[in-house]
Structures are given as C-alpha cells and as structure tokens.
Amino acid sequence: MVGGSAQRVAAREGDNQLVVAGVSKRFGGVIACQDVSLDVPRGGILSIIGPNGAGKTSLLNMISGFYKPDTGQILLEGHNITQKKPSDIAALGVARTFQNIALFSGLTVLDNLMLGRHVRMKAGVLASVVYWGLAQKEDIAHREVVEEIIEFLKLQDLRKLQTAALPYGLRKRVELGRALALGPKVLLLDEPMGGMNQDEKEDMARYILDVNQERGITVVLIEHDMGVVMDISDQVVVLDRGRRIAAGSPDEVQRNPAVIEAYLGTARKGGQA
Amino acid sequence: MSLLDQAKTSTLPKLLQRNAEQHPHGAGIREKTRGVWQTFTWSSYRDHVRDFALGLAALGFKRGDKLSVVGDNRPQLYFAQLSAQVLGGFSVPVYQDSIAAELVYVLNHAETSIIVAEDQEQVDKALSLKDRLPKLRWIIFDDPRGMAFYDDPILRSFDSVLKEGRAFGQAHPDFYETELAKGGADEVAMIAYTSGTTGNPKGAILSHRNLIATSEAFIEVNEVKPGDNWLSYLPMAWLGDAAFTLSLALVARLTANCPESPETVQRDLRELGPDAMLAPPRIWENMLTQMQVKGSDASPLKRRVFGHFRSLAERCELKRSDGKPLSLADRLGLTVGEFLVYGPVRDQLGLRNARWCYTGGAPLGPDTYRFFRSFGVNLKQVYGATETSALVACQPDAEANPNTVGRPIPRIEVKIDEHGEVMLKGPNVFRGYFKQDEVTRDTITSDGWLKTGDAGFFDKQGHLVIIDRAKDVGKLTDGTAFAPQFIENKLKFSPFIREAVAFGDQRPFVVAMIAIDMQTAGTWAEKQGLVYTSYMDLSRKPEVAGLIAEEIAKANTSLPDVQQVKRFLLLNKELEADDAEMTRTRKVRRRFVAEKYASVIEAFYSGKPSADVSMEITFEDGRKSTLNTTIAIHGEVAVEPTRRAA
Lengths: 273, 646
Description:
Number of helices of chain A: 11
Structural class of chain B: alpha/beta
Radius of gyration of chain B: 26 Å
Distance between the termini of chain A: 29 Å
Helix content of chain B: 25-40%
CATH class of the largest domain in chain B: Alpha Beta
Order of helices and strands of chain A: HEEEHEEHEHHHHEHEHEEHH
Largest sheet of chain B: 5 strands, parallel
Oligomer: heterodimer
Number of strands of chain B: 28
Shape of chain B: globular
Largest interface: A-B, 15 and 13 residues
Number of domains of chain B: 4
CATH architecture of the largest domain in chain B: 3-Layer(aba) Sandwich
Shape of chain A: globular
Strand order of the largest sheet of chain A: 6-7-8-3-9-10
Mean pLDDT of chain A: 85
CATH superfamily of the largest domain in chain B: ANL, N-terminal domain
Strand order of the largest sheet of chain B: 4-3-5-6-7
Strand content of chain B: 15-25%
CATH topology of the largest domain in chain B: Rossmann fold
C-alpha cells in the first residue's frame, strides 16, 4: 500500500507544505486512524475537528513523529518524514504544543523558551561550559530570537517568573512561545484554547492569526470551540472514529450532513478528545 | 542667566540641538526592548527628531499645525512631539486609554492634523474615528506589528516618515536649521488637555518659556545632575510627564528611560535604579502593600528582624520630625538596620539611587509617608497643575512634611485671596485655554494672577497647605465649612477604601459613598473565611460593611465632630473613568457622581435603609449596558470622642 500510494502522493503535493497520505494507526484492537489524508497548504490554517476519540491527537502525534503510522506516508515539503525521529522532525521545522501543557514548571518563562531553541544549538557541552567564542555568540543570538518572541506574545513582564506560578491561560501562551522558539515552518497546536475563558480565547485566536499572517507559519489546529475554528480556519477537516468524513472550507463543512450527524448535531459536542 | 535669554536655547528642540552638539555621545533617551536597555545618544536623539520633522514637513505639516501622540511612553512619541515643535507646531498628547468619544472631542477641539500612534491598538481606535475628525490628514504608527495588511492611504509608518524626511532634507539642505532658528521662547510648545473634573477637558496652552522657566526654577531648589536617570512611565498626556521627560530632561541633560511595557514598570524601576522619582500616592501605596505581602511569606526570623528595624526606624523618624535628638543606641541601631534592612528594601524597590522622590496630585497617607521616610527614601510632596506648567511648590530636603506641599519655587508669587483661594503669578503660568477665551478670563485675572481653584493657606513655617478645590468647599446647614476632599482623604488612608465621595453641602450632616479596595478587602474576606464571587458580591457582605464602619470610625476620630461621616454606603462597582465618574488621572468628578447617584443621596438624608439605582456601565470597548440594583445604606457609625486624642 505504501508503494501504491507514491503516485497519488506526488500528484497531490503541488503547493501543499505538508501532505498526509492515507495513514492508518491501530493500537491493538482500537483503530485510531484509518486511511486518513490531509493536504496542508503553505501558509494556511487548517483545523481538525471531530468528537472524542476521533483520532485527532493520534494524527498530530504521527505528524510530529511520536507515533509511527502502520501504513501511509507523511511528507514535509516533499521529503518523506514518516519514519523519522521526533527530534529530526522538529529540526526540519515542525513544532507543536500539547493538549496538556508540557512545560518545565520549575524553570522560568525565559528558560522554557530558550529550551525551545535547543534543536538549533550547535555548541557542544564543553564549549557551553567554557562559554567563550562560538558558545557565547550562539547563546546571544538565540536569546535575541527568544526576546523577539517574548515581545510578540507580550510576555515581557513574565520573563523571569517560574511557569508553575502562572495561570493556565498564560502557560498556554508560553507553550506557544516555546513552539515558536523552534523557528518552525509548520506549527501543530493541540487544543490551544482548551479550558480558557472567552477573553483568553480571543487573545489566543489573535496570536494564532498573527503567527500565521505575520510570521508566515502554516498552522494545523485541533480545537473544540467551533466559533474559533470557523472564524480563523482556511480549511477544516472532520474526523470521526478514525476516518475522515469531510473536508473543505468552514462553510462547506458546516453544511455537510455527515458532519452535522457525526459531530455538530450530537450531544457529544464540546467534550475532551 | 536664563536659557530663555539666549536665542540658541530658547525652545525645547533648540535645547536638544545644544545637548547633541555639546554631548553627542551622552545618553539622551533609552527604551527597554527585548529585555535590553537600548540607548539613543543625544546626537541620535537629535537626528531622529530632525529627520522626523523633515518628514512631517514633507507631509505638509506647517507652523501652527497640531500633532497628537497616543500610546505608552516610547522614545518615538517624544521624538514626534519635539519634531512638531521644530516646525513651530503644537504637540497635543492624549491619554492612551481614552475611549473613542473622549478622543473625538479632544482631537477635534485641538484640530489635530497628524496622529502619531504607538501600535495597532491605537491605530484601530484612530481609524474608527477618522470620519469624525475632519482635520485629520495622517496617522503615523510606530510599532509595525499587525500592520502588514492595513492599506488605508491615511497610514504611514514612523520609519517611512523618517526616510521621507532624509530625502526631503537632501532636497532642502538648510530647512531644519532655518525652521529651528525661527522658534522663540514665547511660541506655543504644547496644548495639554486637563483631565476635566467638570465637563469637557480644557486645552491649556503652554509656551516654551512656561516649561523651560519652570524647569530652571525646579533645578535651583533640587539636586539635579546631568546624566541622572529618570524613569518615564507616567501617562504622556499628563503634563507632569512632559515637564520632566521633555522639559527638565532637556534643560538639565537627564537621561529619560522608557519602560518595556506598563506591566514591567516595577521590574524596570528596580533594574534602572533612577536618580530621582515622581509618583502619585497610589503607586507609593502599592509599593508598600506589595512589600508587606511579600514580607508575610518570609521566614519567621526575617519577619522579626524586619519588624524590629521597621519600628525602630519609624520611632526615630518621629523623633526627628519633632526635632528631638537621637540616642546613641538609636543611631547604632539605624546603622545596623541600614545594612540589614533599609538598604536592601530600597534596593528591591529600585529607590537605592534616588536622591529625591516626590509624591503629588493627591495627599499620601501619613503611615505610608512615614514608612518611606523612615527607610531612608527622601520622599517629599509637590504641588502643581496643568495651568502652572505642572509645578507651583515643592518641599526642600530638610522640610519634608506629609501635611503641606512645600514652598513656592523661585520667581513664583503665591498669595491667598480673601476667599481662601490660592492665586499665583510667574513665568510658569500658562497662556490660556485653547479656543476658550471666556474661561481663560475667568481663570487669569486682569492683573495677571492665576486662580488655581484650590483653597489653601500658608502655615507658620511658610509652607503652602492645600485643603480642597475652592468650589467644592461648601457649608453644612448649621453653617460650618465642609471640605469634601479633606474628609475623603482621611477615609482613603484606610487600605480597604479605594475611593470615597463625601457629601454634605447644604445638608445637616456628612455622608460618604465608599468604593472598597478589591485586593485588600478581598484578602481580608479570605482570611475571615468569607466566600465571595465578584466586586459586587463582596461589597454586599454585611461583614465587609462592618469592617468599613470600623475604618470610618477610625477616620472620624481625626475629624471635627460636625464633619464626621454619619452614614455611608458601599458602591457595588468601582468608580471608573470609562463611566465618566473619574478623570483619566483618577480624580473623582464630584458633580457628575452627585447627579448619577441623586436617588442615593436623597435616601441618605431621608433615613431609608436602601436606595434603588439605575446606572449605565461602559465597557472598555465602548459598549454600554444598564444596571439596576439596590444599594444598602449603613448608618450611625459609632463615634468614640474619647479616641480623638489619638
């Protein structure tokens, strides 16, 4: 099946920065994803929606390399990244945030963001300890990148605070900052607005739009807040029980009867995936 | 000899030119961006002002045109004001947190033709108003963040104007020098809009002479050294900021420092350690509260050491202010305390280098005042108004006193007229209100005395004491004088009371509306195990009413019997500038509040236990909604006359 899809993949690549071609993943008897395909256009915002257990996070985990798909391929700018290690995929320019915030809670905001630069650091352990020449220069250059992100996300007053001391909404913003520190081409956001109040959601939506428009970063988003999804997405893909059941513009998706039945119309709306 | 007598130093932009020629590499102005203090030397300061002025000229800005800046303190916004003045234009700074309706009034009244906006937020506000601003020709933005997709032809970026300016300068080689030389001391430098406690804001016209003469007088009575660091964090539209960051800094060659963002001021203050500091009482009180909160988390040993040295310092400060000598033991204790407690605390607050600190705009609670003085902060009172170039009087180092505002600065005559109103004459008195000649005639008498509108007197030491706004001073029905602000200030010294509005004119007794302080009252409630959800909920708790009743009883002990507060209520929302209840500088608009809460005031005197209020609430984005609510009235505060001696 992998070989057979090669042509299909090539035909679809075009201007798509990220292509997911017919991936399937099975955990024992549970099918997380079955023959799911995605075309993520360069510079767009694509949202993945679907009820609980639809396979959204599994799909994100396969793109970022945490899971290996059983079948199918994932291409980033034409390179097959299906079997690459997560760290290699990150180095290629795919950054992500997590549904449950994954920050170092004992470190400061600044240190967490500096860690986001880790894949871009070249100086060795010894050079870093001596902190002279390249290591020092490199550290300053990375700090500049991080400071630019701090300004972008308006985190100036939190720079030296431990992330554990921050309220939830701000920790989410710091996590976005850490993902940006990687200098990504593609940003995968897993429920960036989960558990936020309306104000925080509006702020976050603004930041996602700015990330996309000003920094030109392609965004793949999993989100439960339909208002936000329909407002900011260029394209929406709907998963249900591991299968792709619809895709298109927000309008098209909202009118699609299969979607209404599987997701928007059911009482399961709004739950945690 | 005054700078004003010399043609080369008679305006603010000329002083900038002087500084750039004499000290090209000295630090002129700094801003913290991306975590680092970035310096503009005097010569680069001048270059920016020159290029931006040339750019404004290329955009058609002429002598007498008005330029408004709106945003947080940024070097670029100071550059823009000086650039307008290079061309003989007026700078009109406006409050960055104004809602649309307020902005429209000021910008139209001032006939602003160019707005220089800090960022996208301010640009959006300006763009939404542009159809109602017929004189507006350009909006120039500094921070390009988020602006990439704006294509309105009215917009220009700050950098593009600088670039146009450089091109214009090449085509017109002597333009800048010629325009700069045209400026004279008596030309208008800026129109500063008053915060407007009554009705619409008024535009006070200030000349270069007003500002420079006031700075020169200030320097004579305060230790100001070239190269001193100054933190520019107060609102740019408040004249106090312009008087220091533009005028004093240029006259005395101070380095102005713009904080990274409004949220980082405290941290930036500590990093910078400025050589002098000006802050309203609210900020001093905040500093003290925060320190106490942090202190309560410290280890028991540290708390005991702190407590011991704090009480020692306060005891010694009291002795000093009474003129009593300190014992050897006191002196030794203070020396050890300086090493262990006072020095480190000043360092934490960012006040270790500050040779003088001023508080002004409203009285500061005596406890707060004593705390800072006793810890070695040279905190003093200053008095001024927009109409007096922000300064009338200040206290000499040896005569600090929480109850007075000090001595008039040199070359200013101050007298008290027969009604007790403070009147003054001198080079700091403004030129009049813009386009409001009648009001100007009411304010400046035919023989040149400015009526400040403040009631006050001189004490034995020769210090000016301000009691209240003269027009607010009324009489109770029994004929005794009633000064509402005097009473309110006593109430506001309580940490639990954020705002108070007292009524009593033509009434039998004094009543007060109280806005509780959410933070301190909330903490108190938590300690009492009280559950609350919101400000409104908290203000309705009978326990909170009891707490405030005690606080009022305390304040009453320091008031004459007839002026004591007899009944009070707790407002169920804070007084807000967005609801026009306060000015942008957080002064209560008394008359407006009296009208809005008319039914409540009636209830006070009719003895009803509660009043129904219907009020309009304005949200930050300008939306409005109406709130109908019932407010309970608490009465008959216990008064213990025996405690008055304390």
